[in-house]
Amino acid sequence: MLFSQQQLLSDTRIWLGHNHEDSQLIAIEDTYTLSLDELILSKIEMAAHRVLMDASWSMLVPGSPIRTRLAWRDSPGRGMAVLPLPDDFMRLLSVRLSDWKRPARIIAADNPSVCWQSSPFAGVRGNPSRPVAVITSYPSGMVAELYSSMAGPSVRLVEAQYVPCPRLVDGFINLPEPLYHDVVALVAQLTMQSYHTDPICGQHCD
Questions:
Q1: pTM of the model
Q2: Contact indicator for 51, 189 with CB cutoff of 8 Å
Q3: Which end of the chain is more exposed for a tag (fewer CB within 10 A), N or C?
Q4: What is the pLDDT of residues 147-170, one digit of tens each?
Q5: CA 56 to each of CA 73, 131, 165, 176, 200: distance values in angstroms, whole numbers, following the listed order
Q6: In this structure, are strands 132-138 and 105-108 parallel, antiparallel, or unpaired?
């Protein structure tokens, strides 16, 4: 859902106003090098990123679709597939190939079980019954290595959903509606932290 930066500014100010110790923040916006609104705006993307990374899967689905084409390490439809991830990729929610019995278990490249994906034994590495997706980085960008398939050239991508990195674009940011107030709360907390610790602001605020 799209939320305007003006709504975020207003709701963050309300949140700050309800905190007695930091209610003085509301009066400083035109006094110092950084206005209060500028300080709040500088925290929105950071707060949204943290909240969306920590949120449960159920709060983020269905996410945005991935429509890039698969590449194959060996022959098409056999072994490991590589799914290029969008440039604004932040978090993979689900991925499934047509010969898999279920969506993949998604793991990071530093997960200890990654080493098992190179095993020559089909029952050890990810397979159509227990597929695994490894999020890793290639020189070309972020990818999901998909282990693995056996059905041959007919294999296709049937589902892939991800969370884009949240960005303010033309004064709006796209956020899951159930997480909006969590983002506002974190924006306010980060604003207060900067207000008390920033060397430029701190000389006036303390």
A1: 0.83
A2: no
A3: C
A4: 999 999 999 999 999 999 999 999
A5: 32, 21, 16, 12, 37
A6: parallel
User: What pLDDT score was predicted for residue 28?
Assistant: 52
DSSP string, 27-70: G-TTTSSS-HHHHHHHHHHHHHHHHHHHS-GGGTTT-EE--PPP
Strand ranges for 53-156 from DSSP E: 64-65, 71-72, 79-84, 89-97, 105-108, 132-138, 141-149
Q: Is 133 exposed, middle or buried (0-12, 13-18, 19+ CB in 10 A)?
A: buried
Q: Which residues pair with 33 in a beta bridge?
A: none
- The model's pLDDT over 42-77, given as tens digits with 9 standing for 90+, comes to 999 999 999 999 999 999 998 999 999 999 998 999
pLDDT of 3 higher than 90? yes
